[in-house]
Amino acid sequence: MKSMLIITRQAPWTGPGARETLDIALAGGAFDLPLGMLFLDDGVFQLVASQKPGSLQQKDLTANLQALPLFGVESLYVSAQSLQERGLDAATLNLAVEVLDDSALTALIDRYDQVITL
Asked: Distance between CA 36 and CA 98 in Å, rounded?
């Protein structure tokens, strides 16, 4: 079975993209697909705790994010540079993720058979 890395680059409040990416990851995990997920660029904002998406008429993605390990999606990664550029600290994120520098990101992407960027 081929492995897949899903790269999510959209903030949770900019439209349906972040939610759709999580749905793909949850579906893949439900079928026991070897799957990893990388939060990159504005996608790191999905990991910020205490969001209030209702004020923007958006759905709260926290429950979906928390369900990832339950669906077998346990390989979760975040870009150190993306966090730094947005003033975020990995210790305050609402999900346990592995923080990777640029060289580790390249190695990560090379490890997977298929890569989907949304």
From this structure: 11
pLDDT confidence of residue 54: 53
Closest CA to 78 of 113, 118, 105: 105
Residue 112 is predicted with a pLDDT of 96
DSSP state of 70: G
Is the pLDDT reported for residue 36 higher than 90?
yes
- Rounded Cα distance between 67 and 75, Å, is 13
Whole-angstrom Cα Rg for the chain = 13
pLDDT digits 0-9 by tens, 54-94 = 555 556 677 788 889 888 898 999 999 999 999 999 998 98
Q: Are residues 14 and 46 in contact, defined by beta-carbon separation less than 8 angstroms?
A: no
How does DSSP classify residue 87? T
Q: How far apart are CA 112 and CA 115, in angstroms?
A: 7
What pTM does this model have? Answer: 0.89
Distance CA 77, CA 50 (A): 20
